[in-house]
Amino acid sequence: MSATASFQDYVQALERQAGEDAKGITARLQAAGTPQRGLFIDCGSNLGQGFGQFSRYFLPRDFDYVLIEPNPNCWPALEKIVAAGEGRIELLKQAAGTKVGVVQFFGLEQDPTSQGGSMLAEHNSKYYAANAATALDVPCFSLAQLIEDARARYPSVVLKLDIEGGEYEVLPDLIARGAHKLLDAAYIEFHSQYMAEPKGAVYRELEARLKAQIVHDQVPLRIWF
């Protein structure tokens, strides 16, 4: 089997899993005396690719959406999605972090809407060196706090996290606060494979510990792509 075919099989299996997750969570929402809505947090929305995928399973008729994207070059595309969402889709124009503040956002020199934009300087270090002089300064917020606040308003919260290396800062904070336990499913893409050594090995070790802790805490973890 070719690497391409193997990856396609993996993607199809993940999409089937997302469909099964969505059916189960939606059934629980509808089982309440009065049907309730869930919340899907799309963290690292870029141009809306993740929304296009997940909204096929976590249907907007059952779920509100928060699209999170700090790159202003991506906002026009996302604003079109919000405009079509009939008030059920929100765009948060900040970077997911561990606290309120400002962070540098790297990796947009070659492509202003790059999917590889990151607040982690080491991200994609196999391919380029981050340049602080050309990085954007973007506002950031606490993702853990957002999840905690959301769970106070919604009976079900689902997270897609694809923030190009930022997960190595955000996930330890979620785990320390127990916010990950408030999720009904977590679709997470990790990025240590894009980092030059020796940093790559450091992040791989952290990645393994994060995955193990999330699974240990019985949070449905799906390794996204």
UniProtKB/TrEMBL annotation:
Domain of life from the UniProt record? Bacteria
Q: Where is the Methyltransferase FkbM domain?
A: 42-193
Q: Which residues form a coiled coil?
A: none
Tell me a Gene Ontology molecular-function term this record carries. methyltransferase activity
Transferase found in the keyword field: yes
Arranged from A to Z, the UniProt key words for this protein are: Methyltransferase, Transferase
One GO term of the biological process aspect: methylation
Q: What is this protein called?
A: FkbM family methyltransferase
Q: Give the species this sequence originates from.
A: Paucibacter sediminis
